[in-house]
Every structure is written in C-alpha cells, then in structure tokens.
Amino acid sequence: MIEAVEENNIDEGLENPIARILGIESSCDETAAAVVENGRVILSSAVASQEDLHAQYGGIFPEVASRQHILSIYPIVDQALKEAHLKLADLDGIAVTRGPGLPGSLVVGINMAKGLAIGSGLPLLGINHLEGHLYSAWLGEEGKKKKKTPKFPLLALIVSGGHTELILMKDHLVYERLGGTLDDAAGEAFDKVARLLELGYPGGPGIQKTAEGGNPEAFDFPRSWLDDSYNFSFSGIKTAVLRTVQQLEKQKSKLPVADLAASFQAAVVEVLIRKTLLAAEEYQTKDILIAGGVSANHALREQISSQKKYRVHIPPLSLCTDNAAMIAGVGCFRYFTGQRDGLEMDAAPNWSISEL
Ligand code: KG4
Ligand code: ZN
Fold it and tell me: 86 alpha carbon to ligand 1 midpoint, in Å?
C-alpha cells in the first residue's frame, strides 16, 4: 500500500493565480519553445525537428544536433511568443530542460533561457525532461481545460528514445522509481530494428506503419520478463531480430519485413503492458499514465486502453514526442512550489527522476 502523502496546494494554486511560463527544450534532436498557462493550457507550442538532418545518418550525431539547436533556438522562442501573442514582460517565468539529454544540446537551451532571464528579470527554472513527459498528460488544448485529469496515486510508464521507466507518482511532483531498462530503451530498440529492416529514422513510425500489413505471430521473438521485476531489457529481442534476418538472408529468402516488424512490435508492447499492469496491481493505483515518444504507438495505445480496470491517460500524439509545452507545464507546477534557479545552473545530462 502507498503511504499517505502530505497534501500540497498545487491544484488550488492552479485554479486561482495565473502563471504563464515560457518553456524551452533542446535535450535531444528537437528545438522547441512553448507558452503554457497554469500547467494545463497550451498558449503556443513551436517545435523545430532535426529528424530530416539525422535521418541521413540513421541516428543522432551529438555535434550536428547542438549546432542545429544554435541555429533554431532564437527563431523558435520568437515564434512561441508571437503565437501566444505575449511578450516576455507578460510572463511569470522561464523553464528550461536541464537534463537528462545530450550535454552539447542541453546547454544551448539553458544559455538561451539564462539570457532571457537576465534580460527580463524573470525567474529561471531548470526542469527534468522525464518529468516533462509525465506532465504532458495534464496539458489540454488552447482555451480548454483537460477533461480527464490524472488522479494520484498513479502508475506511470515513460517510453522514449532514451528511457524506459516505471514510476509510481504519489502526488504532484512526488515520485518513486520502480524500475527501468537495463540496456536499450524501448524507442532505441524500435530505432535499431527499423535501421536493420531499412524502415527509416526515427524507427517507431516506420515499424508501426509496416507492421499494419504483417502478422504479429509470424515470429516468436523473446519477451524478457526478468522474473517479473520492474526492470526491462530490449537488447535480446534486437539481437533475435538480427539473427532471424541473417538466417533468412542466408537462405536467400525474400525478407518478410511486415511480419518481422509486426512480431517485433507485438513483443515489445506485450512486455511494456504486462509490467505496467503488474505494477499498477501491486501499488493499487486506479490510474495509468503512459508518455514519451513510444506512447505514440497505436498498438500500445489500443492494447492498454482496451482493458477496463484502470483509467488510462496518454497524451495526444503531438505531445508524445519531445516538445516544450511539457517543460513549460512542469514549470508552472514548480513555479507554484517556489522553485527558482540561479544563473550558475548547469546541464544535468544524467539526471534521474529519483533525484527529484
Ligand atoms: O520522447 P522522444 O521524442 O525523445 C526522447 O526523449 O527520446 O522519443 C523518441 C522515440 C524514438 O525512439 C522513436 O522511434 C519513438 O520515440 N517513436 C515511436 C513512435 N513514434 C516515435 N515508437 C513506436 N511507435 C511510434 N509510433
Ligand atoms: Zn523525450
């Protein structure tokens, strides 16, 4: 059972005073800026993706990423402010991703945020990127408050290109990390298998599309249960797909790409869902939250939503992958708790959610 958590007044704070926060995100290969009101309402959200740039290499080159962030950061912040019809003087704070992420990419966003904070006198707030993914589930469309707000305690699964984390969220901003990947992240496995099957970068959308025409039972790829612990391992399945492809190529068979993609996707989704449900059962939560780039996956969304025992919260597709609205969203919640960071704030490339 979950221990009682001291009540905080964040929800009340969000009902009354207005906090409008500019969020800046540059932890990986998206340069993004957004303005969010009270952690719930997106006033603007601008994203410059580097996908096309990195697609030619089949993965991210950190130096290429940070130089592209330098080119995009000012126009993107300018766009977010213009689309929100607000000036810096109308805002209450500047939230920026401090980590986890690529050091050279993080510092571009952090330095932009510091410059804006110095120029405007607004407070600076350093935000954890994974916490941002969680809070994307609180965001609603402009002008509307989200109808189905997640309730605590809730079981959260973050599945992205860099992370696979199971987290018990006991209250706003209160986390217990239950487990995570021991090797590849779920999104990383999608990207690596897509590369092998020549389905483009990033791999998730390509695998999903190709899997639509395939049989998910064609290949029985291994599911890594790790004794039903809350840890994950996806390197075994990646190797199993590679071996199968090598075998088929040796036999000069035409690669059944759709069946391979469908069977791989089915195995990953099955592991993600089973472990999430096991944890929700053990910690007796009524709500499940799934966030991060892989939560855009249709099969995952459909299968978790098809059970009726838990209320499931998954952000809309535009908020599953990296964006700055989620950073501004957390910024609002943290602004109400009084968080303020100094100009000495550094990037935190390996910042775990359990340190929050
Ligand atoms: O959250 P995100 O944008 O960046 C990180 O913080 O890592 O996640 C990117 C990951 C990539 O690995 C990408 O292949 C995966 O999310 N992804 C998907 C889908 N869309 C994006 N994976 C499976 N199915 C999708 N539809
Ligand atoms: Zn992310």
Answer: 31
